[in-house]
Amino acid sequence: MTTTSVPGELPGTAMADEAYGALRASAALWVGTSVLITNQFGQVLVQHVDYRDTCLLAGGAVDKGESPAHAAARELVEELGVTAAVDRCLAVDWVSADSVGAPAAMRFPGEILHVFDGGAWDDDRIGDIRLPPSEITGIEFVEPARLPDLLSPTDARRALSALRARINAAGTVLLENGLPIAPTVLDRLAVLQTARPTYRYAWHHGPAPHDLTVTQAWAWLFAPDGRVLVLLEPHTGVAILPGGTPEEQDQGDSIATLRREVDEEAAARFGSPLLLGHVTDPAGRRGYLRYAAALTGVGPARPDPATGHTYTRVLATPEQTTELFDWGSAAADQLAAVHEARQKLGLPRAARQPVTELDSAAPWVAIALAPDPCAPQPASS
Q1: Which member of 48, 85, 201, 286 lies 3.0 to 4.6 Å from 138 by CB, making a disulfide possible if both were Cys?
Q2: Alpha carbon separation from 360 to 226, 311, 363 (Å, rounded)
Q3: The pLDDT value given to residue 164
Q4: Chain centroid offset of residue 340 CA
Q5: What pTM value is reported for the model?
Q6: Keywords in UniProt for this one (predicted)?
Q7: What pLDDT does 9 receive?
Q8: CA torsion sign, 314 to 318 to 324 to 330?
Q9: Which long-range contacts (C-beta less than 8 Å, at least 24 apart) are formed by 241-247?
């Protein structure tokens, strides 16, 4: 028996057209589409519906003769009353027939489901949402870590994989039952499945007031390409910036705290830091300093003495980094200060690109590290 999978190519003479068509029809799958929409704080839009007890992303079935992208745009109009261009696919998921617990009467054959990027909506766009009279009973924007509690298991896995793909900027990812067939470091560590660190504190430029207790000093440490060093907790995927809490041995010197903590957590070294500013807790009694500096070296990873964890070290753009935290509206102000410092350090603005894991066993030699611009220069010969 000879068959073909090339469109337009005639099947082998051993199989009639009708038989070949029946064979292919017997392997048919449903086709669906959904749209991943966030607000400007990285929270995901989910819909409450009247026909099931779990929430859904916007989207639905692809109609006969309709493309997945057209179906996604149509569903946005029908479900949210919003007209939007849908032109970037984040993920394509192969959903097996036995993965969703569909009742036998449904005769669910499996599904190919496309997840499109709906973008980050501002308050005006969100205010334009108009729900239909039936089916959609409400919407809310939720933290990514809440998706497994609100969506079905397969839907939650798919939504989180698509969100990581959006952050990772590596193009469309292929999924099987919601999980990528080629996991990235963000997937391996299940980034965003644990609640993001929340610091919705006001941003202040410059040094902290003398009467403010400094409880943390963190740094945006730049590689030569303009990306920054981010640490991921190995068991939860929670992100932190290098730095930490002052100790007695630091003698009240925040930079000494920073150098010690960065060495302990990341086995990294950096040049002369620039103070960006600080954030304060709601009571205004504790301050968290933020610095920026150029990396000058990264050695083999080792356990942090304070936690016993060996952090996974990655390079990400400053914009990608802010998506790993829940900093609220103050994130934009801090990000602006970060780029101002980057320019002072003479470093380029990083193009959006996949997050890169640093080798955990050997010194970092992938790229040449920038010299400290404030360090004494050798005399020319």
Answers
A1: 48
A2: 21, 9, 8
A3: 98
A4: 24
A5: 0.89
A6: Hydrolase
A7: 56
A8: positive
A9: 241/321, 242/218, 242/266, 242/268, 243/216, 243/217, 243/218, 243/219, 243/291, 244/216, 244/217, 244/218, 244/306, 245/215, 245/216, 246/214, 246/215, 246/217
N-terminal to C-terminal alpha carbon distance within the chain: 78
Please determine, for residue 364, whether its predicted confidence score (pLDDT) is greater than 80. no
Pairing of strands 243-244, 213-222: antiparallel
DSSP letter for 323, please.
H
Q: Report whether 314 contacts 357 (CB < 8 A).
A: yes
- What the chain holds in terms of domains, given with CATH numbers, is 28-186 (3.90.79.10), 202-357 (3.90.79.10)
Question: Rounded distance, CA 198 to CA 322, Å?
Answer: 11
- Quick one: which of 274, 281, 294, 284 has its CA closest to 206? 274
Q: Are 172 and 165 in contact (CB under 8 A)?
A: yes
pLDDT in tens, 109-119: 999 999 999 99
Query: Which residue carries 């929409």 as its tokens?
Result: 37
The amino acid at residue 252 is G
Distance CA 34, CA 197 (A): 28
Cα–Cα distance measured from residue 182 to residue 60, given in angstroms and rounded to the nearest whole number? 26
Summarised one tens digit per residue, pLDDT across range 263-284 is 999 999 999 999 999 998 877 6
Q: Which residues pair with 58 in a beta bridge?
A: 35
pLDDT tier, 286 (very low <50, low <70, confident <90, very high otherwise): confident
Angle at 264 between CA 217 and CA 185, to 5 degrees: 90
Give the H/E segment covering residue 49: strand 44-49
Report pLDDT digits (tens) over 178-226: 999 999 999 999 999 999 988 888 899 988 888 888 899 999 999 999 9
